[in-house]
Automatic annotation (TrEMBL):
PANTHER family: G-PROTEIN COUPLED RECEPTOR FAMILY 1 MEMBER, THROMBOXANE A2 RECEPTOR. It holds the Pfam family 7tm_1. GO terms for molecular function: thromboxane receptor activity. One of its GO terms (biological process) is adenylate cyclase-activating G protein-coupled receptor signaling pathway. Signal peptide: none annotated. The chain crosses the membrane at residues 30-52, 64-90, 110-131, 152-177, 197-226, 247-272, 284-303. It comes from the Eukaryota. It is a multi-pass membrane protein. It is found in: Cell membrane. This is Thromboxane A2 receptor. InterPro entries: GPCR_Rhodpsn, GPCR_Rhodpsn_7TM, Prostanoid_rcpt, Thbox_rcpt. Residues 346-377 are annotated as: Disordered.
Length: 377
């Protein structure tokens, strides 16, 4: 007679700690979870409404692509809080028993996948936005043909697919998801065992690499933008929207770095050193990381042109470019343009065999005002 496995065998997701946990710690209180989730959901929902209205009225292709990336980021943060927050709040209100509710670890695996997926997506989207702005500022003509609205949507979808594939790795045997203290959430098993360590390093290094790419490309973009705004070609391209987008992107990158770096470094350091998992530090850095989902939408809500107009009403934000804010720059550029055109015509006359006849046949080039030139671009 073949013996079957004992019915009381501990499932894999419960094999580290036994439930129920002692959930008397203040950082895991129901009040904190409800307020935290409610604030994050309302902030992201408000940002989505503002983004939708702005996208409907925008006519700039580069700004439309950036708004699609930003909309994907805010939507991802909203869904992350909705999925994981509802589970955590339900636990703190009902104190359900995970073993009775989820004897086969399906629910725990789903939450662990959600934590990994919604954790990596903002970091990967931040890197994708940094690449888009880098190309838009340094190679504007190439970007206009490469990054359309449909291409931006495809890039956001690729980020979601990439993060989803990484979150599915434990189901394929690389790592595992375990119930974590105080029993309200599941996350990857932070251990020095080979498979667990590999998955922990993949999660940490993908996040840290995304932050590094964002920092490098955003730094180059800011330097380039400063050179263009302060250099001789400052009047040739529209820059007010690009400055606005770069300010928002820099703040998103800074918030992501402050919120996520401690947790990512903590996971990598713990699995590499083989030391015992510090639960208190894990909970602390997790709170830092989830704070990113609340702060992201406020970057766009507070740092956009409509708000900046009210903060600095004396600055003329109604014109098309930064040079229009400074009339002396427009005058200097107009003089420079006229001098360049006059010199070019003289050189062409010297090179032609019959300058008088050629000048009669040519149509004179109109000289536009610098403000009009920058506004049309």
């Amino acid at each position: 007679m073949v013996s079957s496995a004992p019915s009381n065998a501990t499932p894999l997701c419960f094999s580290i700690n036994s439930t129920p946990f002692n959930h008397s710690h203040t950082i895991t209180s129901a009040y904190f979870s409800v307020v935290f989730s409610g604030l994050g959901l309302s902030s992201n929902l408000f940002a989505l409404v503002v983004l939708a209205k702005t996208f409907h009225h925008t006519k700039s292709r580069s700004r439309s692509s950036f708004l699609l990336f930003l909309g994907g980021l805010v939507f991802t943060d909203f869904m992350g809080l909705l999925v994981t927050g509802s589970i955590v709040v339900s636990f703190h209100i009902t104190h359900f028993n995970w073993r009775q509710l989820d004897p086969h670890c399906h629910f725990c695996n789903f939450m662990g996948m959600s934590m990994v997926f919604y954790g990596l997506c903002p970091l990967l989207l931040g890197a994708a936005m940094a690449v888009e702005r880098f190309v838009g500022i340094n190679q504007p003509f190439a970007r206009s043909t490469v990054m359309s609205s449909s291409r931006a949507c495809s890039t956001v979808a690729m980020v979601w697919v990439t993060a989803g594939c990484i979150s599915l790795l434990p189901l394929a045997g690389l790592g595992s998801y375990r119930l974590q203290f105080p029993g309200s959430w599941c996350f990857l098993n932070i251990s020095s065992k080979p498979l667990e360590m590999t998955f922990g390093l993949i999660f940490s290094l993908v996040g840290l690499l995304s932050l590094a790419v964002s920092f490098l490309l955003n730094t180059v973009s800011v330097i380039t933008l400063l050179k263009v705004c302060c250099g001789q070609d400052r009047a040739q391209r529209r820059r007010d929207y690009e400055v606005e987008m770069m300010v928002q992107l820099i703040l998103i990158m800074t918030i992501a770095s402050v919120c996520w770096c401690p947790l990512l470094v903590f996971i990598a350091q713990t699995v590499l050193s083989g030391s015992e998992l510090n639960i208190r530090h894990l909970l602390l850095w997790l709170r830092f990381a989830t704070g990113n989902q609340i702060l992201d939408p406020w970057v766009y809500i507070l740092f956009r042109r409509a708000i900046l107009k009210r903060v600095t009403p004396k600055m003329d934000w109604s014109r098309g470019s930064i040079t229009s804010l400074y009339p002396t720059l427009s005058t200097s550029f107009r003089r420079l343009t006229r001098a360049s055109l006059r010199g070019t015509i003289d050189r062409l006359d010297r090179d032609r065999p019959n300058p008088d006849k050629a000048r009669q046949e040519d149509t004179p080039l109109p000289v536009q005002d610098a403000t009009a030139v920058s506004s049309s671009i």
